[in-house]
Amino acid sequence: MSSKGGGTALSRRNYRLASDTDKPKVTGIVNEKLLSDYLHHVFPASSKHGPASATYRKTLNFQDLGAHLERLLSEDEPAEDGTDQVEGRLGPSTVVLDHTSGFEGLLFVDDDLLGVIGHSNFSSIRATTCAYKGKWVYEVLISSEGLMQIGWCTLNCRFNQEEGVGDTPDSYAYDGNRVRKWNVTTTNYGKSWAAGDIVSCMIDLDEGTITFCLNGQSLGTAFSNIKMGPGVAYFPAISLSFKESVAFNFGSRPLRYPFHFYIICYLPLQDPPTADLIKAHRLLGYMKTVLSTCIDTQEEKLTEKDIGSWQLKGEPTVLVTLAHIFNYFAPLMCKVYLVEDVLMSFLLGILEGGGSVDEHPLIQQLLDLFWLLMEDFEVNECLKQLMMSLLRAYRFSPIIPDLGFQIHYLRLTTAILRHEKSRKYLLSNVITFDVLRSVVFFYIKTPLRVKEAGLEELIPTTWWPTRFDKEGKDEKDLRHETADERMRRRAYERGCQRLKKRIEVVEELQVQILRLMLNNKDKGTGEASRYIFLNKFRKFLQENASNRGNPTVLCPPEYMVCFMHRLITAVRSYWDEGKRKSTGAISSEEAYVPPQLFYNGKVDYFDLQRLGGLLSHLKKTLKDDLATKANIIIDPAEIQATSMDDLDEDEESGAAQRPSGAAAMGGALARPSWLSSPTLGRANRFLSTAAVSLMTPRRPLAPPEKVKVRSLPVEQRTEEDIEGSHGNDGLLLGRPLEEPDQPITEKSLLEILDGIVMMYNLSVHQQLGKMVVVSDDVHEYAVALKDTEEKIARCPGRRPDILEELQKSQKVFAEKLNHLSRRLAWINATIYSKEKMLDVYWLLRVCIRTIEHADNTGSLFAFNPEFYLNVAMNSYSALKNYFSPSNSMDELPGYEDTLTQLAAILAKHFADPRIVGTDIKDSLMQALASYVCYPQSLRAVERIPEEQRVAMMRNLLAPYEQRPWAQTNWILVRLWRGCGFGYRYTRLPHLLKTKPEDANLPSLQKPCPSILLQRHMAELLSQDKDMAASFLNSVLNQLNWAFSEFIGMIQEIQQAAERPERNFVDTRQLKVCATCFDLSVSLLRVLEMTVTLVPEIFLDWNRPSAELLLRRLAQLLNQVLNRVTAERNLFDRVVNLRLPELVSMCHDSASVLLSDPCFQLHSIQHLLGETEASTAGADHKHFSLHAYTDYISAEEEQKVEQMLAFLTEESKQAAATTAPTSEDDLCPICYAHSISAIFKPCSHKSCKACINQHLMNNKDCFFCKATITGVEDYSKPAGS
């Protein structure tokens, strides 16, 4: 065995072959008597071998030590005749899941055959061993809290995709998801479980009972008088739905909760390794004695010392003694049961005294000893099992008020990872990020049951909002709260602060673990830890990015959130340490990812979409820009070859690499990852009742495109490839001229930062939104409680029955609020705290700066991954919507400047031609639409440079036919809301009251018009006549379509309502109808905005399109008015159907309006409620603008009345002066105007309005379909 570690190198083989002549060399200066005393002290004989006094005992030396130790260890070995075996079981002694015949459905099973994941509707599986008498127990580690039924079944039970354990007569199950027990029928039982809980399943086949426990607490007897007798034996079994996962412990590891009830002992189904346990504990005792004994060669005596101060100094006597111990101890430490029960308990005991991990150097010394005296494969397996046991213990530990269990396990993990050689082995082989086991260490689970978590003691006083405004939002003004409310709130806040401090202890330990993994100074024994971590981290990101459609292989979002926050803290600390050492570098506050990472091929972005499209396409189209701007040359032949290879490989891989069993089910299933396997083993068995096969490993990454730079697959990269060296920029190869030539930070930190941004995009944002539901529940219950209390106050004394029911409701709401407010305190401390908010804000600023730097590179901006823009938009949304009201975005440093920077990005890039992806363009448009709904962010848009504002408005006014227009129109409407006729509402009249959770929706914000942006719009439309004409024509065209569709659907709904038979209107039809209505209203508002701001577009007759636009506007207005004021009261029916009202008024030219044949004065009279008495029923209530005093001011009503009077007078004068017209002289198209235009060359005639409108969309003649080359004025000859 080769020398390992420091000090004296001693192998097991060397000391066992030592001869008498070698003995003085081995024992050094220790004399024979002292050595004998020392060895007898370390290895005392038991009482079976006579008196142990020094007078009678035999001299002991190293030559006899082997036999002596062998004799001591064999004393307590159990007899081999098996008489001590407990009866009552049938099956293999090693109990596992029956993956050969004992399952139904589709399942993934781990390598150790103890972890299982459901992969079909309802899959079932049982164990290999059954029990027919006695008392037995097994544990189930709950990895996901979904639908599962856990318990016992007999061999006769037959399950299918609908029926599982508990659904047949001889099977019994507990379901913590629905909180029920099952045996054909079902009743309420137990408590709800959560991920991280442990369920103990106990069966007493002497008394015929089945009991379940949750985290060591009995849930009571679930079933009694179960079937027993000859031929009846019960197997552990489970049924679970898709993607749910658990792990079983039948006794292969120490039970977390061994049960002894009333002197009744339940035994694990699998016997513990009793003989090995006794031997391991005895050897550990010998080792402790060695560590606590000091040999004083001067005084020739043995002295006791503190075991914690022991150091590996290379003393021959001590080392040879330890080597004898390790000869027996090392093989035992390869077994998971012994590692968990013996070694982990011993190491945890070392740290029990408290203090920092640095105050306990013994663990470092012991690890040195392990590497010195154990074979490589032994120490590797020992460390692996030790780390897996710690991960499992941390993950499935119950939450107690001081988080003692979690802190305990994290401290030991930190101590182990401080040992450099052990850390690098674990990073390379165990804590690997292809199956990212270590993410477990960075998660702090949220307690589902606050009482068991001790939150009642930690937060004895609860509080929730009790005052709400008209919109249902919490009132933030604390001046109105009573003294009692203030006292409760402050007591609650103090409790929350106590909880937060305890959680911060755990978070600090988690950051320490990550800092150890990110250490880049430990290069003495090979590659630094950071670069091992980085390569594994990239593979972890790849697995989560490439398998988003398969939830069984993804790291759960709740784990990803915690991991991201700890990683940000660790990265920023290293970043700022580097800044202090390098004066030219930037601080983490100014962090960004340089643009060259996105196109130089040094960082693999898998197949994630770029802003400009696919990477292969960009390398073809932008190869010249890469060469001139970044000095990166791509061989065109290689690009073409790579593209063809990708096509061929995709076609061949499906046929050649797909296993037959999976092919029958529609394609190979990706290998599930670590978390689906609660045993933390690699799940690679796929079980199906149709086919049983091993999983084919997922196809490896395709090698990067061959560019004329050094580029390697992730797993082959070294420190030099990442950080660079002389003449090599590493990850920053290909710096564009626009990028400043200054150091940023260590390049490895840049790649980790890039990965953090990707993590947020993958699942963190989704989880942040999901956890807000607890806050919404608190709000909802608080409103319900306040409403109930008000009803109690109003309840008449003569109705005690109602009062009793109200008081019951009050009690239920109060209990629920007590529970939710404590749970919310935990969530606010772990997810929505001020520190977490600052992390997300820092990430937002990183993305903004990254986008700005990439934008400066011109065409190379297309290489930027889409997720940077997504994270910028989503992180802003999270800060605004998810972290309030506990934390306000206004308090963030540089908040207004950040808003302005983000506004500039949205304004510039929502119409950026370099961005081609439809989804990202829609996201940008929606983000801008949301941005202009809130006063603060709208002011930020107004603060961006004027040139960018004008460009944004120009893009918004582009013709609607050339692009998706609904969001654009919505933006213009928001800029106008608050300025139009009666346009002061936050929601349309007749709609139901806003729900509290909807109060923050952009569409329900109070009006905040932008006069500045309106002015830009007016200037653009006024100065650019062609753009004004094309914009308004597109608006009118869309409005014609939207309003026609709306009216058509309303008529269908009306007809259905009038049928005598009972009928139901299709919900989808109602939604489409409502959408068309919303579009019509918003388009009308944009028309109103345009007419108000730029009336000269319609009234300046020097504009060639003015007359046509005015006529089209008049036609449209008349169509709207006539439709909604029809004689059959269609508009009233719309109101009665609870559809929003339709109101629009535009300034127009009286003559054009009156000349339109559709114009009717009674339409305007109808809006004012002025209807003929004969048509009005006694009880019928007509629509009237006068009824909407909250929205329409008296001044606006007066204007409508004045307009009606003016039009009435004008119509009378027009009727008096209009000469009768012959029918032959009327336009044959509209029959409303006289013929005034003749077409060339066909000489057909019509009015100017009809032909001008027709020529906008078609150049063919109405009548003969000839191409019209010109239109001339036509006047009727005088003699005709």
Q: What class do helices, strands and sheet pairing give?
A: alpha+beta
Low-confidence stretches: 1-28, 647-684, 690-707, 1137-1149, 1173-1179
> How many whole angstroms does the radius of gyration measure?
40 Å
Tell me about the biggest sheet? Answer: 10 strands, mixed
| Gap between N and C termini | 123 Å
SS elements, strand count: 26
Count of helix runs: 40
**Share of helix, binned:** 40-55%
* Overall geometry: elongated
Strand content: 5-15%
Mean pLDDT metric: 80
Quaternary structure: single chain
Biased composition (Basic and acidic residues): 716-726
Domain B30.2/SPRY: 75-255
Main location: cytoplasm
Region (Disordered): 705-737
Structure description:
This protein is an alpha+beta fold. It contains 40 helices and 26 strands. Strands 3, 4, 7, 12, 13, 14, 16, 19, 22 and 23 form a 10-stranded mixed sheet that branches. It has a 7-stranded antiparallel sheet with strand order 2-5-15-8-9-10-11, with no helix packed on it. This is E3 ubiquitin-protein ligase RNF123. Residues 705-737 are annotated as: Disordered. Pfam families: SPRY, TPR_RNF123, zf-C3HC4_3.
Q: Could you list some keywords that capture this structure?
A:
ten-stranded mixed β-sheet; 1280 residues; disordered N terminus; 46% helix; alpha+beta; seven-stranded antiparallel β-sheet
